[in-house]
Amino acid sequence: MSLREQLNEDLKAAMRAKDQARLTVIRGIKAAMLAAETRSERITLDDEGIFQVIVKELKERRDALPDFERSGRQDLVDKLQLEMTLLSAYLPTPLTEAELKALVEESVTAVAASGPKDMGKVMGWLSPKTRGRADGRQVSEMVKARLNDMR
Hints:
By secondary structure, the protein is an all-alpha fold. The chain has helices at residues 3-17, 20-39, 47-70, 74-88, 97-110, 119-130, 136-148.
């Protein structure tokens, strides 16, 4: 079953169960998918494209969370955390730190990186393999630390 079909089935189930939080999240994903599909030429997103949409939705919520925490809006913090949990359910299992370190080592070897100047090459090789499974900032910091150790 494709991710699109899974989202449609989950939408129907949330409507039947009157699960407002899940309904809101799935409708948000579907709206973002539609926007992405109509933004450029009429395309239909595959599972990878839908994962990217979900990752973007998750990132938006993660970025908004500190603002709500600073302003003391616990109700909105709780709502965002629930939405982030619901969104995460559609993503592949996250990479452990050990798996991520192994991928970083593999990427450094694969592109024959010799130092910090090769950051772009390493990230270009690594990004497709970690997309949706690891935080981009964490990946970038790990690669930067590894390349700086090569000096």
